[in-house]
Each structure stands twice: as structure tokens, then as C-alpha cells.
Amino acid sequence: MNISYYLHKKELNRDDLVFLLGRTEPEELDQLYCAAREMKKEWVGNVDYYRGLLEFSNRCIKNCCYCGIRRGNRQVGRFDTPKEDILAMALWCYEQQYGSITLQSGERQDEAFIDYVEDLLREIKSIGNGALGITLCVGEQTKETYQRWYDAGAHRYLLRIESSNPKLYKTLHPQDGHHKWEVRKACLDALAAIGYQVGTGVMIGLPGQTLEDLADDILFYRNQNIAMIGMGPYVVHHNTPLGKKVSEAGLDSPEERARRLRLSINMVAVTRLFLKDVNIAATTAMQTLHPLGREMALKAGANILMPLVTLPQFRNQYQLYDNKPCLEDGQEQCRNCLSARVASVGDTVGWGQWGDSPHFFNNL
Ligand code: SAM
Ligand code: SF4
Question: Is the Cβ atom of 62 under 6 angstroms away from ligand 2?
């Protein structure tokens, strides 16, 4: 069977997803990405939406084995962005017509943090009378906390499942009782029950991850009725247990990184073909592995971009992985650079619009 058979099939099954994810030949990849781009045009349009990404604190109670700001990394200085600076950046996003903002940080579950985020949400919501859409990405919390933040104005929440395979998830996290796949999955359920537009995603190219795992990740998105997907390649951070293991095993060669990028773009394309009306982000990690990584994702079906609005003085301290791009760029540069990237693939920017996932409303 050649690839066009699969691209014209009405319903793709798990084996079909595995087949498509595993394509490597340039001609087949062209056909796959072209079909996904057509699907994007049909279901979400060739309009890409911005979420200004504000990484406001790197304090974290977790110790995920892959992450550069894990609690155990003593080489990284911890920071909290002053509230007035966060509000100034939110106002800037509003003035720049970004439409939405994403607040991201390490995970904390103490009352002071919960109150702080709640106040912040109310203040951001007052800008332009609720003009900015707000996505939160601050980890696992209780259902009560999620509810308080929803009531304060957040309407989207991004919590990556990291891998839909609980066994693989286990290999990526310490077994200390605080890093449980079941808890993360229950958080996704709680968020959906409250009424959030729920986003999740996985890291791609993890050691031990198979094409079947990735196909199951896409089926997991469908089964959880996920509205937004934020996924990208796993990228090594030198001072993490996983990063050291991968480097020592010789698994961070240029060929290996190219493989992880190709798999990531394939995941974008196959997810678009399978789920059709969801929002899919062209994530920064893709650009880390290739200067045009985000353009490749847009061309293969992604429709969301997250220009960095983290304060330049804190960017060095929010390095989840090595060689994160845009560390030196001011927010103005990020804005202009991304607009040029969108134009280069023939898309337009949905200035001033929230750009909610059509899937969320199609399913109400
Ligand atoms: N702390 C929150 C959480 O974990 O959900 C939100 C922030 S966390 C930094 C956001 C995402 O960064 C994680 O879900 C993970 O997928 C990603 N990440 C962390 N380390 C990474 C790495 N080395 N390569 C690629 N992605 C990574
Ligand atoms: Fe903390 Fe999130 Fe990094 Fe895990 S991935 S260590 S929860 S910031």
C-alpha cells in the first residue's frame, strides 16, 4: 500500500497512524504534510494565532528527569517576575493585538502561589475589559484550585501528559510518590469537568518511545476530547538525569536530533489529519532542533504560535533544555520575527482574536 491510500482513507486506525508516523522518504513526507496542510485550511483556516508566552517563575516542587528547571538543578538561580512586570507585559500583549496570553511556571501548590495566580488572573482580565484570552500552564493542582482560577478568568489550561504510556512516563520521573501518571490524567479530567478548554501534549523522540506509543498519544488526545495540542521534540538539558543518560549513550547526535524533529513534524501532520479541528502549537523546541522548525510545523498543520514575552533578564533561568532559541531577543523582535515566519509559509496572523479551538465548540 502506498501513502496516498492512507491519505485518502476515511477513518484511520492505530496501524494507519503508525504507518504514517514512520514515513521518512522526502516524497512521502511532502505528500503527508501537503494533506495535513489542506486539512488545516479546511478546518481551522490558514490563520495562525498568537499566545504571548510569559514564563513568570522557575520555582518548582517537581523533579522531572528531563527538565532544566527541576528542583534538583542547583545550578539554576530561581526567580519570580514582579507582579507589575507581568501586568505590564500583559498590557503590551493586548496593545500588540496578541489576543491571548499564556502564563507558565514551575509547579507550586502552596496557598500563597494559588492566591497570587488568582489575583494575577483578575488583574489581567481587567485589561481592556477582558480582551485577552488567558491560558494557564502551571502544573498539577487540586480541582478546587483549578475552579478558583477558572472563576478568576483563565479559560484554557495546558497540561502535557508527557506520554500516554504510563510505563514510559515512569521512566521519566522519580518514583517518590509525587510524579504519578494517574494524578496527571485525573487533572486533565478535572479541568475538562470545570469547563476549561483543555490542552495536552507529549515529548517526542524520548528514549524507549515507539511509533506505537506515539500513535497511542494521538488516540489519547481523541479519547480525552482534547481541544489544544502542545507537543514537541524532547531536547537534552545537560544537567538533568535524562539528558546525561542520553548524551552518554551517544543518542544526541545530529542524526538523532534530526530524527526527533522529523518525528515531531510527522506527529503534527498526523494529529491534524486525525483530529481535524483542534488547535496545534508550533512549539519553540522545534526551532531548537532546526532554525525553520516552527515554519515546518505550520506547513504541516500547526496553527498556534507562542511568541516569548518572558522578561529578557529571566530567560536564561528558564531553560528547560539546551540551546533554547530567542534568549537574546526582546519581545519586539519576537513579534516581528514570528510575523515574518507566518508570512513565509503563506499564512496570516489572527491579530486581536482569541483563536479558541473550534473543536471545543464543535463538541459542546
Ligand atoms: N511545570 C508545568 C508542567 O510541567 O506542566 C508547566 C511548565 S513545564 C516547563 C512545560 C513543559 O516543558 C512540560 O510539560 C514538558 O513537556 C516540557 N519540557 C520540559 N523539559 C523538556 C525538555 N528537556 N525537552 C522538551 N520539553 C521539555
Ligand atoms: Fe517542574 Fe514542569 Fe519542569 Fe516538571 S516539567 S520539573 S513540573 S517545570
Answer: yes
